[in-house]
Structure formats: C-alpha cells, structure tokens
Specification:
This protein is mostly beta strands and 345 residues long. The chain folds into 3 domains: 106 residues, no CATH class; 98 residues, Hexapeptide repeat proteins (UDP N-Acetylglucosamine Acyltransferase, domain 1), CATH 2.160.10.10; 97 residues, Hexapeptide repeat proteins (UDP N-Acetylglucosamine Acyltransferase, domain 1, 3 Solenoid), CATH 2.160.10.10. The chain has 3 helices and 38 strands. It has a 17-stranded parallel β-sheet that branches. Strand 2 and strand 3 form a beta hairpin. It is elongated, with a radius of gyration of 29 Å. It starts with a strand and ends in an 11-residue tail after the last strand. The mean pLDDT is 93.
C-alpha cells in the first residue's frame, strides 16, 4: 500500500478558493490532517512504497497518484520526481535511479504569483465543471470564481462576473449576477444583481439590486436597492428598501417601505409603515446611540427628523419637514415646522 509523506512549503497556508493549499491537498488525497506525516528535506530512499509531496501542489488528487503509480509499475520505474527533475516531491516504489519526472497539470507547484495564478485558474475551472455536472447553470464559466466550500444547488443560475466564497449557499432557482457573495444564503427564486453580500440571508423570491448588505436578513419577497446599504438589519417579508437608503441595526416589519434617500439607525419600524424621502433617524447625540420605535401603519413624511430616544405610536401621521423630539401618540397627526410666510414685493 502506498504511503504519503509531506514536505512543508512556504505556500501551504496560502488561501485559494476557500481552503488553504495544504487542506486542498489533504482532502483530495483522503488524508486527515492529524494523520499527515511531515518530514524534512527528503533524501533517503524508503523501504516501502511512498509518495513524498510538498505542500504546494493543490491540484493533485488521489486518482492522479494512483494513475501515475500504475504506469510506473507497468514500465518498471522505481522513482519519479514530481513537477520538475530537481523537485523534492517524488514517488518511490523501490531503490532505483531518479531518471524520470512527471510534469503534468496535477503537479503544478505554487512558487510565485505567476504560478499561483495558473493553479488558481485550473482549480477554479475544476470547481465550475463539477457544478455544471451537478446541474448548476453557469453560461459564462470563465467569468466566475466559486470557492470549493460554497453550496450551489442544482437549478441555481450564476451569471457572469460573480464571486461566491466561504460557506455561501445558493438555492435552486436563485439567480446571481455580477455579485460578491461571502458566507451568505440566497434562497429559492431570489435574485442578487451587482451587489455585495456578507454574512447575510436573502429570502425566497427577494431581490437585491446593486446594494451592499452585511450581517443582515432580507425576508421573502422583499426588494432592496438599487444603491441601498444594510448593516446588521432585519428586513421582513414584502418590505421595500429603495435607492440610497441605509438601514443600520434596525428591524423593518412586514410590508414597511423606505423608498429612497433615508437613514434608519437603531430602530424598530412596524409593519406597513412608510418612511418618506429624506427622513433621518437621529440616533447619535455625540456620545451614545439611542433607540427609536415607530409603530405599525405609520406615515412618516418627507424630510422628517426623529431625534432618539423617541416612540411613534401605531397609525401616527408625521407631516413633511417635521422634527420630532417627543413621543407621538397612536392615531395622531403631528406637524412641527415654521408656518409659511409669503410677502409680495
């Protein structure tokens, strides 16, 4: 039985498409990390059949080794250097001359930025090919990069210029185009277009368009963007977050809307409430952040300032241009602006 021994490499910790070079190799060879035998610069000939591999060849697989060993036995080759004639990586089947070497794609070594790029693109294509074989729709395969750790279900569509990394999950029927998705879930039939998602969840049938989303949850059927920013936000189902709206550490209830040009920070906004254009949740007094509660079925007019801490009751109507500094009771109308004066010259 062929044994594996490994040589350390300065590139073994390099991250490449979701794993370090070392982890790519050990997993492909079926060797557990705790069982990997690491040796120094290998010189002596072993008594048993051994493959000595340096931790800089993340493309090598067990099938590659088994195939080359089979050919060595058929041709009576005892020792084969891998990657180049002077490489310390080799396969040893017995005592013999080192007159042969294998220089194939599988044994490409990472030694500089150029070789890293070559290995990266071979591995990228291998991952994409495996996804295509499983029924993932990737019409322009050369334009996407997907980590081996990502979970892409059959029936998902990955369109050009997308980068999917970490523990991302793209469910069946979801569509991703020109987006960077890291450690996030895109549920069935959701769409993500030209956006950045990190540590987030996009619900079934939801849409994220040209937006930046971090540590947030977007509910079923909600729409976000274009040019929205979510940070530690929870957007419940059927919400609408429009262009140039920022939501930070806040929750928007089902069906709530902030169509454009608003900042919602440290707040809970009730279901079906409308946040008007230019509205600002004034959550910071220069020293501390304060919380705002807005009830259900409220109408917050354009250019309203809500100075936290403050509570707006259910069904309240806040007139455009109002600055709120005191709590507003339910089902009330509040206006807080100077009366218009017009003088004729």
């Amino acid at each position: 039985m062929l044994r594996f021994k490994f040589l350390t490499s300065e590139y073994e910790g390099a991250l490449i498409l979701g794993r370090t070079v070392k982890k790519h190799m050990l997993e492909a060879l079926g060797v557990r990390e705790e069982d990997a035998v690491v040796v120094g610069q290998y010189e002596e000939e072993p008594e048993e059949e051994t493959a000595v591999l340096s931790f800089d060849m993340p493309l090598v697989t067990l099938a590659d080794i088994e195939g080359i060993v089979s050919r060595m036995r058929a041709k009576g080759i005892k020792t084969l250097n891998l990657g180049s004639e002077d490489s310390p990586s080799k396969i040893v089947l017995g005592r013999g001359e080192r007159g042969y070497f294998a220089n194939s794609e599988a044994f490409l070594k990472i030694s500089d930025t150029k070789s890293y790029s070559m290995v990266y693109n071979h591995l990228r294509r291998r991952i994409v090919d495996s996804l295509l074989a499983r029924g993932v729709d990737i019409p322009f395969a050369d334009s996407v990069a997907i980590d081996v750790t990502a979970d892409i279900q059959a029936g998902a569509k990955i369109l050009p210029f997308s980068r999917i990394e970490g523990c991302a999950r793209i469910c069946a029927g979801a569509t991703v185009y020109a987006s960077h998705i890291a450690d996030s879930v895109v549920a069935c039939n959701a769409e993500v277009y030209a956006s950045h998602l990190k540590d987030s969840f996009v619900g079934e049938g939801a849409s994220v368009n040209m937006s930046h989303v971090e540590s947030s949850k977007i509910g079923d059927g909600a729409t976000v963007g274009p040019f929205a920013r979510l940070r530690s936000a929870e957007i419940l189902s059927k919400c609408r977050i429009g262009d140039f709206v920022e939501v930070k550490a806040s929750t928007l209830g089902e069906g709530a809307k902030a169509a454009h040009l608003a900042y919602i920070g440290d707040a809970d906004v009730g279901a079906r409430t409308n946040i008007g254009c230019g509205t600002v949740f004034c959550n910071y007094d220069g020293k501390q952040k304060h919380h705002t509660d807005v009830g259900e079925d409220c109408f917050i007019g354009a250019n309203v300032n809500l100075v936290a801490p403050i509570r707006v009751g259910d069904g309240a109507f806040i007139a455009a241009g109002t600055t709120l500094t005191r709590d507003v009771p339910p089902s009330s109308f509040t206006v807080g602006r100077a009366r218009q004066t017009t003088k004729i010259r």
